[in-house]
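User: What would this chain look like folded?
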Amino acid sequence: MNFSVNFKVENDIIESKERRNKAMSSNAKREKTSSITQLVKIVAREVCEEILQEREEEHANSCVSIQSSLKEAGKQWNSSEDICLRQEVQIAIAQIAQNHGRSIGAITARIRQKELVGYK
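Assistant: Here's the prediction, encoded as structure tokens.
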């Protein structure tokens, strides 16, 4: 009788240790998963910050490029520029008409109708 009680007590102790080990193992897995999740969040945040910084630099560079290429900005238009602009618009509208298989008149009417250029 004493032997069976001791065996039961020892068995209970072993089962208790196994449950505790499983619980600790489960907690360790949760902690490890939580640590990995935190690491992923940190890396993702850093990558996003790098991308935003690159885009800001690209934008700044493109603005400088545009400003340096606008040599006539702020200057008054002269008659030769007006003639050149009119010809370029006519060429562009003719190309658009060709692309759509429509007449130049149809394209200019549609541009006015839809206020695509901002004039009526």
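The mean pLDDT is 78. If you want, I can go into more detail on any region.
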